[in-house]
Amino acid sequence: MTARTRPTGGARTPVQQAALLVGVVFLLVGVLGFIPGITTDYDTMKFASHDSRAELLGIFQVSILHNLVHLAFGVAGVAMARTASTARTFLLVGGAVYLVLWLYGLIIDHHSSANFVPLNNADDWLHFVLGIGMIGLGALLTRRTTAAR
What we know:
The protein is mainly alpha-helical and about 150 residues long. The protein contains 4 helices and 3 strands.
């Protein structure tokens, strides 16, 4: 089986299933970020600013831009889950992007205009976990084993 094909019967490969699941979760998080009550201090949400005090589940600081990024990642994940090679790319590249966001969140002053996404400490560490998790899924679910040869 090549990286571009599905197993017999049209079933998704494990890496495709992982990319689809990650994409659906990002879509869900993006939508939930726009729902008052699930997002606390919803009335303080800004488009893109460190002054946005809205928090998804009262934990993760969000803005309209932040929610739109989640939705875009979700659409990308669902679309790229169509083949194993693009699913792997989504997980590896998306994971790398989230590790860059983690580093960015650690470096910037959360109270400065550089924090335009915005990010808080909970976001920073979630980005770390997402980055490692996505890269791990992309790498582990597509590695070849000697038993398969």
